[in-house]
């Protein structure tokens, strides 16, 4: 059965008919063309599909799309404003915190959720917030440094 | 993932009707962090899921003198609605005020994204022997409040688990909340977890220990997760610690905890390794409690 849901994604209102068993990840990518959340493990382990839902980081592969009716969703597509990259995006580039890039959208959204709640996290707090985001390339150090750099710049959003 | 239907009832009557539809496998749905992976694996085959997050009282987190209560004064029990999320528990000043061992267990569970979705009721619903909330709820002597088509009941956590991934809920029954008495004055509780990674994985061994002043000494409670078909208390370890908590008693209690276990081999650890680690993790948890009792 299809359910009609209405949700706000990166500030825009969408109404879409979704199947009961389809995940938010699938609907974002395949019905709405929002492809920054990546399909990794689809098991809640890797965080490649991380989006911010109602202010907190969640794995979009573990949310049914119909559950997102009325929700506010943020993805990487909404990070840059007026053609300017978000400070986290700039820092990831400057610190070479991206290699293959597959984990990057999830890393950015987990980092944004952290800084939204805790603008000046310690390195330990950053690592703790990223436990659910696996990266097979960078070794994490540059990612943590990039986020620390933004935290030092003050209010990121 | 196999197709299934989705329902979001507004009241319990509607929920019970859906959950007991004849000939259908209907699953309550909370945070979906177990339901989606298990369905994707094919281990669970729901015809439909019943989203319980809109039912009255399931998102409440408050102090309550509820009936049926546990004998403590009104306003002295913590009520955690079944659909309260792990991160809400981990960060709640109320939970940390007297029930900190539960906050520690919630914080030790999964990863940030999982804790933002996973609920306490879902943790008990899945009834994994490794459920992180279970040892904490065991030492807190919590009760599971259940509503069903045939009425309400309150089940002590100790009687809630029936085997690996099995609990005593009957078809159609829902956990509405967990009721936790206020621990005795001066209580200290610690949850220690060993897993393959420092964070983000299920427990190889999880140990909750609580102690409080009593007469001239202390009373102790010890509970173990992931080392038996269900989470368990270790009365043997408790009796030893009630007699004293010097180094010799701590070693003896940790050895008694070892004796209570019958772990399994799985992808996370061998049974032999688990049983050895019960000794170390129990000792570590007891020592952490002792340190807080005598700072
Ligand atoms: C990456 C990852 C890491 C994890 N790490 C841990 C960990 O470290 N420790 C740990 O303990 N668990 C862990 N889990 C397992 C899972 O997150 C927890 O068991 C969680 O608490 C389940 O809650 P939920 O709300 O997501 O449940 P759901 O998936 O919605 O439901 C789980 C089960 O309980 C039933 N159910 C849900 N609510 C109720 C209710 N109110 N009444 C009756 N039945 C109900 C459902 O029908 C289902 O059978 C992990 C999971 C993932 C994906
Ligand atoms: S794809 Fe969602 S956590 Fe891996
Ligand atoms: S950059 Fe390749 S997985 Fe992180």
Verbal overview:
The complex is a heterodimer of chains A (157) and B (295). Chain A has 157 residues and is α+β, with helices and mostly antiparallel strands. Chain A has 2 domains: 2-78, Roll (Ubiquitin-like (UB roll)), CATH 3.10.20; 87-153, [2Fe-2S]-binding domain (DNA polymerase, domain 1), CATH 1.10.150. Helix content of chain A is 32%, strand content 17%. Chain A has 5 helices and 5 strands, in the order E-E-H-E-E-E-H-H-H-H. Chain A has a 5-stranded mixed sheet, sandwiched between helices. In chain A, helix 2 packs across helix 5. Chain B has 295 residues and is an alpha+beta fold. Chain B folds into 2 domains: 1-183, Uridine Diphospho-n-acetylenolpyruvylglucosamine Reductase, domain 3, CATH 3.30.465; 188-293, CO dehydrogenase flavoprotein, C-terminal domain (Enolase-like, domain 1), CATH 3.30.390. Chain B is 33% helix and 25% strand. A 5-stranded antiparallel sheet of chain B has the order 4-5-10-6-7, covered by helices on one side. In chain B, helix 10 packs antiparallel against helix 11 (271-293). Chain B is globular, with a radius of gyration of 19 Å. Chain B starts with a strand and ends with a helix. The mean pLDDT of chain B is 93. Bound molecules: flavin-adenine dinucleotide and FE2/S2 (inorganic) cluster (2 copies). Residues 98-103, 135-138 of chain A line the site of one FE2/S2 (inorganic) cluster. One FE2/S2 (inorganic) cluster is lined by residues 98-103, 135-138 of chain A.
Strand adjacency order, main sheet of chain B: 4-5-10-6-7
CATH architecture of the largest domain in chain A: Roll
Count up the helices of chain B: 11
Terminal CA distance of chain A reads 39 Å
Shape of chain B: globular
The CATH class name of the largest domain in chain B reads Alpha Beta
The tally of beta strands of chain B, per DSSP, is 14
* Fraction of residues in β-strands of chain A: 15-25%
Radius of gyration of chain A: 15 Å
- Specify the biggest β-sheet of chain B: 5 strands, antiparallel
| Helix count, DSSP H or I runs of 4 or more residues of chain A | 5
Helix and strand run of chain B: EHEHEEEHHHHHHEEEEEEEEEHHH
Structural class determined from secondary elements of chain B: alpha+beta
Low-confidence regions of chain A: none
């Amino acid at each position: 059965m299809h359910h009609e849901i209405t949700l706000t994604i990166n500030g825009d209102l969408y109404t879409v008919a979704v199947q009961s068993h389809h995940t938010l990840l699938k609907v974002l990518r395949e019905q709405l063309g929002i492809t920054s959340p990546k399909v990794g493990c689809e098991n809640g382990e890797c965080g490649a599909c991380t989006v911010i839902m109602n202010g907190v980081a969640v794995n979009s592969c573990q949310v049914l799309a119909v559950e997102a009716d009325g929700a506010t969703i943020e993805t990487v597509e909404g990070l840059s404003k007026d053609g300017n990259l978000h400070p986290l995006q700039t820092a990831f580039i400057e610190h070479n915190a991206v290699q293959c890039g597959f984990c990057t959208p999830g890393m950015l959204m987990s980092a944004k959720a952290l800084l939204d709640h805790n603008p000046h996290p310690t390195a330990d707090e950053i690592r703790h917030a990223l436990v659910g985001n696996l990266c097979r390339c960078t070794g994490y150090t540059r990612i943590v440094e990039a986020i620390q750099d933004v935290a030092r710049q003050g209010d990121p959003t | 993932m196999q197709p299934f239907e989705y329902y979001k009832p507004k009241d319990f009557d509607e929920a019970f009707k859906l959950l007991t539809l004849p000939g259908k496998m209907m699953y309550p749905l909370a945070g979906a962090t177990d339901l989606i992976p298990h369905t994707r694996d094919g281990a669970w085959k729901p015809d439909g899921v019943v989203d319980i997050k809109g039912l009255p009282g399931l998102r409440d987190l408050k102090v309550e003198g509820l009936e049926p209560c546990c004998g403590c004064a009104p306003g002295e029990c913590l009520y955690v609605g079944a659909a309260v999320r792990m991160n809400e528990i981990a960060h709640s000043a109320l939970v940390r005020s007297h029930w900190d061992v539960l906050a520690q267990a919630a914080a030790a569970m999964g990863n940030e994204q999982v804790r933002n979705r996973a609920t306490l009721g879902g943790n008990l619903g899945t009834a994994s022997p490794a459920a992180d909330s279970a040892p904490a709820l065991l030492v807190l002597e919590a009760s599971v409040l259940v509503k069903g088509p045939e009425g309400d009941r309150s089940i002590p956590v100790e009687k809630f688990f029936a085997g690996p991934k099995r609990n005593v809920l009957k078809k159609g029954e829902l956990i509405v909340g967990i009721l936790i008495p206020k621990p005795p004055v001066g209580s200290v509780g610690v949850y220690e977890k060993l897993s393959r990674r420092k964070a983000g994985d299920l427990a190889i061994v999880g140990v909750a220990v609580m102690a409080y002043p009593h007469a001239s000494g202390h009373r102790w409670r010890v509970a173990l997760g992931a080392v038996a078909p269900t989470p368990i208390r270790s009365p043997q370890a408790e009796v030893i610690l009630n007699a004293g908590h010097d180094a010799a008693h701590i070693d003896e209690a940790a050895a008694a905890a070892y004796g209570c276990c019958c772990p399994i081999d799985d992808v996370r650890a061998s049974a032999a390794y688990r049983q050895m680690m019960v000794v170390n993790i129990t000792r570590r948890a007891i020592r952490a409690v002792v340190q807080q009792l005598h700072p």
